[in-house]
Amino acid sequence: MKNRRHDHFLLIFILCMVTGLLSGACKNSSQAKHTVVIGVVIESEPLVVTFDGLRKGMADLGYVEGDNITYIFNGVVGSDLDDIDHEVEGLLAKKVDLFFTPGTVPTLRVKQAVEGTDIPVIFAPVINPVDAGVVDSLSYPGGNVTGVETGDTLPKAMEWLITIAPATNFYVPYHPDDVTSVSTIPVLMSTAATLGIDVTIDEVSSPEDVVAAIRSLPEDTDVLFVPMARLEAGLDDYAAAAMECDVAIGSYQPSYMRNGILVNFSVDLFEMGKQASRLVDQALRGASPAELPVETADGFLTINLVTAEAIGLEIPNHILRLANTVIY
To answer: In what order do the strands lie in the sheet with 198-203?
Structure first.
């Protein structure tokens, strides 16, 4: 009787051990299946910090690289559409679960590439996602795409520029092939009309054109930089020419913040990436991007006192106290 009872308990013990092993194997298998792969497509170098913010945000949410999440980022792809499309095709071939796309152009190209699939696309930043054709509306994006927009930083940047460096005219250079630049012009013109400012919009094809134009600007003219990926290489030259001619430059591009720009009202790209991580998490958990409202990032004012001194501009203390960042 004792032997039978012993055998009975032994059998139960063995069954429990086998069940535990099988459960562990199933658990490990389940964990492996839930390792997600995110493909990252970035057009310009300054936007890489947005990806850094995303990774920090995902880590804060419990995602561990090499364990339950993997990022595929092959470096900055540039603004050539063929290069962007080639990168997207390569990521699709690697069966990514989601795309992260800082910038308007990569977002539009990825949106087109994933049409007809269920692969989510999360952007950060995009300046005018509705006008650019990225989403149907901010509340109900539709399709596969949602993300974080920059919000009304352009009107605020214009307001701050004329407050700090009063002028009656803005000179705005842009490249006709920069989709984001073109999409900002209607907002720019509307805001200028409200502020009573004349705007000279100049279609340029090279950094040399911008430098030459700055050197020939009439008095009472400030320069406003809209996004211009194809012209960013000349930022330092633009700032040098402006300081030589006592011309103030304003922008709402976060990547232009320290290139001699006098006034910048823009988002914090790192924080924007962290903000986007929450949308990524929701999408990975099954939420449809079509029903995840586009979020808006906070804007921050930066004033460059080094530039102000170089162009002989004195900025009152009460304005400096309103700045989030002052560069000395």
So the answer is: 198-203, 169-174, 221-225, 249-251, 263-266, 300-304, 325-327
- Angle at Cα 297 formed by Cα 185 and Cα 233, nearest 5°? 55
- Could you read off the pLDDT of 56-72 as tens digits, one per residue? 999 999 999 999 999 99
**Structural domains present in the chain:** 33-149+268-297 (3.40.50.2300), 153-266+301-327 (3.40.50.2300)
Percentage with pLDDT > 90 across the chain: 77
Instruction: Using a cut of 0.85, tell me whether the model's pTM lies above it.
Output: no
CB burial of residue 130 (10 Å; 0-12, 13-18, 19+): middle
CA distances from 2 to 8, 12, 13, 99 (A): 10, 15, 16, 64
Rounded Cα–Cα distance for residues 296 and 310 (Å): 34
Give Cα 45 to chain centroid, integer Å.
Answer: 11
Q: How far is CA 113 from the centre of its chain?
A: 19
Q: Position of tokens 């920090």?
A: 56
